[in-house]
Amino acid sequence: MQTIDVADLDYKAINETLREAGSDFIIEGCCGQKFIAAGMSDKNVTINGIPGNALGAYLNNANITVNANAQDAVGDTMNEGKILIHGNIGDAAGYAMRGGKIYVQGNAGYRAGIHMKAYEEKIPVMIIGGCAGSFLGEYQAGGVIIVLGLHKDNKRIVGNFPCTGMHGGKIFLRGNCENIHFPKQVTARCASEGELDEIREYLSEYCSDFCYSVDELLSEPFTVITPDSKNPYKQMYVAN
Amino acid sequence: MKIEGQVRIPSGCAISAVISKDGNKMSGETITNSMKPMHDRSNGLGGGFAGYGIYPEYKDFYAFHMFFDSRDTRKKCEAFLKERFEIVQSEIIPTRKIPAITDEPIIWRYFVAPLNSVLVSLQSEEKEFVAKTIIKINAEMSGAYVFSSGKNMGAFKAVGFPEDVGIFYKLEDYEGYTWTAHGRYPTNTPGWWGGAHPFTLLDYSVVHNGEISSYDANRRFIEMFGYKCTLQTDTEVITYIMDYLLRVQGLTLNESASVIAAPFWSTIAAKTDLDDQKKHTYLRTIFPSLLITGPFSIIFAFDGGLMALNDRLKLRSMVVGEKNDKVYIASEEAAIRTMEPNAENIWSPAGGEPVIVKVKEGAF
């Protein structure tokens, strides 16, 4: 285990250090440096402080743990690996990710899971413990997004316009979501036992990461949203 | 090689602000440092700051900060000002020679009061007269620009990275209860001294991260009311829109936010609070040309407070944090942590949701 104090280092210097020897790192004093661990494989990185935008972009099978909030575009286009955030994340998390896991204890900003995709055995998974902002799963093409709505303080579990342009993958929202308006090209319904079984493994892992009880999580109904493939590209930005 | 302005560089920009609700003064060093972790969001073609409460000894006078291209222009402009204002103090704005900031214009400030005889003969209200005079100088006097004009506040801007601009203007020597900051990465317009943020009129100032798709529609509308967009960039129109809505039309900050970042019609239709629905319908119907579309996060500051606002689709990042009497706002949490490592209640306002912070009555 190697500890790096990055208070006076820019992102290039940080990533050069990470790429050199060793596989286990603790980063101390992080404050806004972007692209940390971008494209890296076979590393375990723990970050103390606030990592900058595009944390773990193009991640290729490394594990990143952040003991604070993370900024925008966490796991942009990541391919494999796991990013664990003990806090909130900013906008556009998991932008176009095509594999791996992003588990967030707190809330997500706007456009979480925008254009996530999947291919054969590659199925990206994003779990948000709190609430998600507007445009959750915008243009989603594949993969699984789960929002748990824990500690939501009477807020809605997602903001406006969830699933806009969604044409693949699945979104699970804990609760019955009666107060959420979904676009016409998706179907929202109560998740069946079989569908919940599909995500039980992910939820168990999430619960052991953040010390929650999976049975308690599953004691409430989940709403599952899937695209209705007949009409996937209903425009929103033009006819506003 | 094509110069900036002929080519389009897609990019970021950075904003940052701090305000003390108790009116406690802070030097400009903190806000300057907040821009450092966001360095890569700018490209060195513009940085600037606005400080409020910085001129207590001249608090009853309008502080004009000006750029001149030559001594002749300055003399000509001073003659123009003297016919309209009592100038109680005129001086060079102190700057530091540093390699990072070059080609500076002549940078001067004047503390002025409009001549009563002029106001009487024009039958003009004071603020209206001052605003018109500034617009006239910026539009008609070649080589002269008023880039700050409020009472007990001032904007400081330049071509350079914001953290260097703060050092250039010796901001550590000023004490303010509100500071805002901007790092520029110009996309469609030239990087020049007048085009750096903040954009100001009277005590209003705007720093903006984004790009206004509706700029020309907004500009055409606002120019019907005597404003002139002269600074070759989109952001200045926001300042004039806010001046028009708040000072001329008498709207509240919340109402102004509902005009410039109006919700979608579908969002308005879905509102369960019918009074709120009626209000939004009214504002969107009356001021359709002042809806600002395209990505923006702005911090609008004024005498005694500020308002932060995102576009309704929230296409730019913005976070808010607090600690004791202070509220911090920035494009990135890292900037807030630089100002206050132990900031609490970090949150991201929704698109179109204004965050309004005012200094306690009488505290500034």
Secondary structure topology:
The complex is a heterodimer of chains A (240) and B (364).
Chain A: E1 2-5, H1 11-19, E2 24-31, E3 44-50, E4 60-66, E5 80-85, E6 101-104, E7 125-128, E8 141-147, E9 168-174, E10 186-190, H2 193-210, H3 214-218, E11 222-227
Parallel strand pairs in A: 1-2, 2-3, 3-4, 4-5, 5-6, 6-7, 7-8, 8-9
Antiparallel strand pairs in A: 9-11, 10-11
Chain B: E1 14-20, E2 26-27, H1 29-34, E3 47-52, E4 62-68, H2 71-82, E5 85-92, E6 106-114, H3 116-122, H4 126-140, E7 144-148, E8 153-158, H5 162-168, E9 175-176, E10 178-183, E11 199-201, E12 204-210, H6 215-223, H7 236-248, H8 253-260, H9 265-269, H10 274-286, E13 296-302, E14 305-310, E15 319-323, E16 326-330, H11 333-339, E17 344-347, E18 355-358
Helix pairs in contact in B: 6-7
What does this structure look like?
- The complex is a heterodimer of chains A (240) and B (364).
- Chain A has 240 residues and is an alpha/beta fold.
- Chain A has a single domain (2-236), classed as Glutamate synthase, alpha subunit, C-terminal domain (Pectate Lyase C-like).
- Chain A contains three helices and eleven strands; from the N terminus they run E-H-E-E-E-E-E-E-E-E-E-H-H-E.
- In chain A, strands 1-2-3-4-5-6-7-8-9-11-10 form an eleven-stranded mixed β-sheet, with helices on both faces.
- In chain A, strand 1 (2-5), helix 1 and strand 2 form a beta-alpha-beta unit.
- The longest helix of chain A has 18 residues, at 193-210.
- Chain A is globular.
- The model of chain A has no long low-confidence stretch (mean pLDDT 94).
- By secondary structure, chain B is α+β, with helices and mostly antiparallel strands.
- Chain B has a single domain (14-358), classed as Aminohydrolase, N-terminal nucleophile (Ntn) domain (Glutamine Phosphoribosylpyrophosphate, subunit 1, domain 1).
- Chain B is built from eleven helices and 18 strands.
- Chain B has helices at 29-34, 71-82, 116-122, 126-140, 162-168, 215-223, 236-248, 253-260, 265-269, 274-286, 333-339; strands at residues 14-20, 26-27, 47-52, 62-68, 85-92, 106-114, 144-148, 153-158, 175-176, 178-183, 199-201, 204-210, 296-302, 305-310, 319-323, 326-330, 344-347, 355-358.
- In chain B, the strands form four sheets. A seven-stranded antiparallel β-sheet of chain B has the order 8-3-10-1-16-15-17.
- In chain B, a hairpin with a 2-residue loop joins strand 15 and strand 16 (326-330).
- In chain B, helix 6 crosses helix 7.
- Chain B is globular and about 60 Å long.
- Chain B starts with 13 loop residues before the first strand and ends in a 6-residue tail after the last strand.
- The chains are: A alpha/beta (240), B alpha+beta (364).
- The A-B interface holds A 31-34, 49-50, 52-53, 69, 71-72, 88, 90-91, 109-110, 133-135, 159-160, 181, 240 and B 37-38, 40, 264-267, 270, 313-314, 317, 319, 332-335, 337-338, 346, 348, 350-351.
